[in-house]
Every structure is written in structure tokens, then in C-alpha cells.
Amino acid sequence: MELVLIILLLFTSIGFVAYHVSNRKLVEEVHLPSEITGESGSKLKAFNLKNILSGPAGFIERLFGKSSFSLPASDLHKRLASSNKIMSPTQFMVLKFFLALAVPLAALIAFQAKPVVLIFCAGIGFILPDIWLNNLIKKRRALIVKDLPLVIDLLNICVGAGLDFMVAVNRVIQEFRPCALIEEMKIMTNEIQMGISRRDALKNMSARINNPEISSFVRTLLQADRIGTPISEALKMQSEEIRLRWFQKGEEMALKAPIKLLFPLLIFILPVVLIIVAGPILIQFTRGGMVKF
Predict the structure, then answer these.
(1) For residue 35, is pLDDT > 80?
(2) Of 99, 104, 106, 102, nearest to 128 (Cα)?
(3) What are the Cα distances from residue 13, in Å, to 19, 133, 231?
(4) According to CATH, what is the number of the domain 141-245?
């Protein structure tokens, strides 16, 4: 047990030393003047999870190269791209291994856990970042799909007014409120400005978001561009289709609501009602009297 504790403390100490040694730029960037940051005072804006993990990740990349996590990164790159690249694959793997060490260490210090429990805690700590990332991706996709019909309507209005599709996209980016879908559209326009074709930029956006509604939207645009159909008609049909799909999804959720309410009613409400109704009757019978109405 003492050997396990020493190993965990050793790995934790190495991680903190690597962070302070290779992340000195973070300490220098924290105290930027307000003229550069545009904020009043020098706030610790750079102190977040990504910046904390950048030190150990940079240390590992300098030791083993930037392709040190190239084997699991094929799927990890897609998931991190769907979450708006909150961190690099190396930083994410550092977070997984750090929690795999920190959670058993906390269980050992707090509860004097046994080795089997420590192994179980290490597995929990290792999969916690994956659960967090999947939840983040799910919320981001829901926000994108929620704003998609409005953005398509604005694109339809701009294209119907005579603007080119990319000019309409830039106009929507400028006028629409900041959201996840606008961020993805900005990435798409930046790729086109860097020389990537519009077709490939749209496919990249669809691959990053990885959502059926966005994939259908991109396929409609690509098909309209290939066949020669007016984009305004394709946008109008796509907007109506998405709204119909959401209406059907709402009806499906409304039909499932009574079934979902059945179990809380049986578990929480029905016993209370039985206690209120049958309680006085049972008390009267236990006292040996008759119930008077």
C-alpha cells in the first residue's frame, strides 16, 4: 500500500514539475495590460483547463514527438473537433492519465481503500473525461440543430435577394448572434479563404459536427450545386424538412411523456396517497374500533 502511494505521489509530482517548467509563457501572459486584453485589470483569463494541461502535454510532445498519441487520435480528433477543439489529443490523454492517478490517490487518502477499490477508482478516473467530452459534444450538437432552421431562413432570404451563397454566409455570420453554428460557419469560410474548395469546406463542416440534420443540409447544397438547382429552393425545402422533423420529434416526446410519468407516480405519489387514505382506517382497526363515516 505504501508503494502504491509513493508511485502515485511520484507521478503527480512529475506532472506538476513538467507543468511549471514548460508552461512559463502562461505565467507571463496572465499579467497582460488592459490595452491588449481589452479588459479592466489583469484577470487570470488564461488560467483554464486547456492552459493547465498545455504544460505536461508540451513536455510529453517534446520527449516523444507530437505523434505520441497518434494511435488513439483517429477517433479522438473527430470527437475533439466536434467539441470545438477544447484541447489537443495529447492534452486530453494527459487529463485521462492524471485523473486515473488522482482519483485512486484521493480514495486512498480519504478512505484507506483496498487495492481492488483503487483499481476500480483508476478506471473511473480514466473514463471520466470521455463522459464529459461526450456530454459536451451532445449539448453542442443540440445547440447547432436548434439554430439551423433560423440560419437557413436567413440564408434563403439573402440568396433570394440576389446575393451569392458565400456572400450570404458572410452576411449571416455578421448579423446573426454568436452561437456554435456561426462558429462552424466561420471555420468553413476561413478554409475557403485558405484555398479549400467550397465543396470540401462544406464536407469538413459536416464531418466536424457529425449530425444527421447538418449532413442532410450539406448534401442538399452539394446536390443543388452539382445539378444546377437554385440554392434558394434547396434552402427552403431543407428548412421545411428540418422544421417538420422537429415537429414530429416533439409529438414523439409528447407521446412518451405519460409512460415516463408512470414510474414516478407509482413510486413517489401512489404510496403517499395510500398512506393518507388508508392510514386512518388502519389506525382505527389496530385500536379495535369501527370506522365511522
Answers:
(1) no
(2) 99
(3) 10, 26, 58
(4) 1.20.81
